[in-house]
Design a protein that fits this description.
170 residues; alpha/beta; 4-stranded parallel sheet; 8 strands; 16% strand; disordered N terminus; binds iron/sulfur cluster
Length: 170
């Protein structure tokens, strides 16, 4: 008599643990948080990001707030490695501190992809303002983006959300 239990291996494989989908760091102002210098948000965020947020895969951060700056605050722009406000204050240390907080979050959550707000002296990935406070954009990136990229994290703007999500889902 054969007393071996009838084990169906294919069922076990199908019901086994699912691979964990990776998280994405996102600028808080892109998801409706009123954290900008003017106490506004940049966007309420794409539907796709809200869907990922429902899955617990979105980590929100405003690096400037994390770095200790208040809201509202004077607008600031990047010139070389310095961040100057329109009212003449030097915000560089706060911006660097915020960038370090962003990197720490990424390391803690094993994040390899970030979607950050374009044109910001912290979060910009392809363009920033030129430091003249005249609304002139130049090719460049923000302090946070530079630090994340230097540590192997891919940074995209709100204009490349689909591509960023595709990479995060791989
Ligand atoms: S620092 Fe980044 S998240 Fe914060 S308001 Fe500026 S662009 Fe948005």
């Amino acid at each position: 008599m054969n007393n071996k239990p009838d084990i169906n291996l294919s069922n076990i494989r199908e019901s086994g643990p699912q691979p964990m989908l990776s998280k994405i760091l996102v600028s808080a102002c892109l998801m409706g948080k009123p954290v900008r210098y003017d106490e506004c948000y940049a966007s309420k965020g794409a539907e796709k990001l809200h869907h990922l947020q429902g899955q617990g895969r979105i980590v929100l951060l405003c690096p400037e707030i994390a770095g200790g700056l208040p809201t509202p605050r004077a607008p600031a722009e990047r010139v070389s490695d310095q961040i100057k406000s329109q009212t003449g204050e030097n915000f560089t240390n706060a911006f660097i501190h915020g960038a370090e907080q962003a990197l720490t979050l990424c390391l803690n959550h094993n994040i390899k992809i970030a979607i950050l707000k374009e044109n910001s002296p912290s979060c910009g990935s392809d363009f920033i303002y030129d430091g003249s406070f005249t609304g002139t954009k130049i090719r460049g990136s923000g302090i946070v983006t530079d630090l994340l990229r230097a540590n192997g994290i891919s940074v995209f703007s709100e204009h490349n959300i689909d591509h960023a999500i595709d990479l995060a889902n791989q």
